[in-house]
Amino acid sequence: MTQGDREAIEALLAEVETPDRLRRLGPARLPEVAGAVRRYLIDTVSRTGGHLAAGLGVVELSVALHYVFDTPRDRLVWDVGHQAYPHKILTGRWRRMHSLRQKDGLSGFLKRDESGYDAFGAGHSSTSVSAALGMAVAARAQGIEREHIAVIGDGALSAGMAFEALNHAGSIDADLLVILNDNDMSISPPVGAISNYLARVLSSRFYNRMREGSKQVLDKVPGMKDLAHRWEEHMKGMFMPGTLFEELGFTYIGPIDGHDLPLLVSTLENMREMHGPRFLHVVTQKGRGFAPAEGDPCVYHGVTPFNPETGKMESRAGGRSFTSVFSDWICDLAAQDERVMAITPAMCEGSGLVAFAKRFPERYHDVGIAEQHAVTFAAGLACEGIKPVVAIYSTFLQRAYDQLVHDVALQNLDVTFAVDRAGEVGADGATHAGIFDLSFARCVPNMAVLAPADEAECRALLQTAWEHPGPALVRYPRGAGIGTEPAADLTTLRWGKGELRRRGQGIAILNFGTLIDRALALGEALDATVANMRFVKPLDEELVRELAQEHRFLVTLEENVVAGGVGSGVGEYLAAAGIDIPILHFGLPDRWIEQGTQAEQLADAGLTVEQMREAIRRHLPADISLIAG
Fold this sequence. Notes:
By secondary structure, this protein is of the alpha/beta class. It contains 26 helices and 19 strands. The protein has a 7-stranded mixed β-sheet with strand order 9-8-10-11-13-12-17, sandwiched between helices. Helix 1 (3-16) crosses helix 3 and helix 17 (371-383) runs parallel beside helix 19. The longest helix is centred in the first third of the chain and has 19 residues, at 30-48. The radius of gyration is 28 Å and the shape is globular.
């Protein structure tokens, strides 16, 4: 993009600035606005990184929605926040797009405290229909007339929660418009002149008045109401895939071309005049307008900074990732044991299962954005002698907690959980931070919880957990570790036992997980003993007792919330054993840590070596003077 092009685009964005000014434009200028938004999105994300392909697919839809509806008075609820970058550009935030996903910058998702146009916070998927329905019912109860629009897409309709909300909305005749942003292209053949014509007709005021008037007349004729309804459904079913949504109580329109702005505007204007539950099916192309993203929308779903002319992305910094360690391990394991099956809730690439899916397609199951189903599906497999591995992000496992408890742990089923993105996750921020799993998993009977310190230990503990005859969870962070090379074989570690990494005096540091490098540096600064505990549950009580007896002050370190975390578990054991020793817990605080680099987030939590050293100085009993230097 030339400097002249950039200035022209910025001048147009400044002219529209916010939706109220966008609505002053004539409809003929809307394609010009959409073009500017698309080019600006590519340019800014090429420098910051972030989610790209999904946003490119909804540029025209975003323009049309803000043009037709009186936002923010009309509530626009986006599902899966990474499709909402164009929405951010159109709602007064375009000048801050350069700060996207950076510390103190714009969030990569929706945040109510970031803008009044963000009606509902969205980081996880499939929440939009429920939230918009709640808003619609609240408005009705308060006698307020306004529109409530839920935009759901990018696979989010595969989640049961979305269908629960649709079922509820239809049953109470809520004044709600649900827009399905369908970029799967599986229904692309119906998109064309016929379906666009039908959308115009079926959303028109004339058709809907005729339909409602006919119903009123035919209601008075015995038998004719049912006949007319069957005829209407038969005729619509010949052309449209909307029978399911009609049966749920929605007036279904579509599918229509989501990049045809005049069609979008006219259809939305017609549907705005309708009442009750309405469902608009819009087909879009993920990555629209940027050839590399159109060609491979999966790769360009989430990007590092890239060349906006060629699409070539910068290499990700750091060494080998924990995700790749998991990928190699499960492929090696599956080659030796036919009982292995891998399950993921729509996170094949993110969870490291691409190679497994190619090598063992019959043993790979992507269940869609359906975390609850993923866990209970694994439980069913385990009942019949399969050895399932559920590859899931820590923050997404939260959505299947009841299934973890009731369907797996209560029955003591042999399911292994490979929990990625544990701890702080950097630019994705608080919505995706995996900071609760140690707390919510260690309190569940039968559930083993393992926390490797490095890449080599990650592979070994995955194998150890898999060979354990019961439910076990192995958690590891986003990105790379300290650079240890995993073994090539499928070795295990001794069950429930930690190890000493450094011998010191006076103070003992009990490290759980991948902050081991900080623990060792802190140990050097304090001449302290450092233990790599490995197991959160079962806790190595023998090692804890030994360290408590040989030292005068204990420190626990974990990348999990302190509240209910493994440090609490150490304290619980010491109290039960009658061992009285001062103990200081390092972990994540009882507040949300927003986006930034992972290093910035850990510093915000007080987990740099110097911060921890100073905290120990403050808490060390007066009669202990053991800090070196």
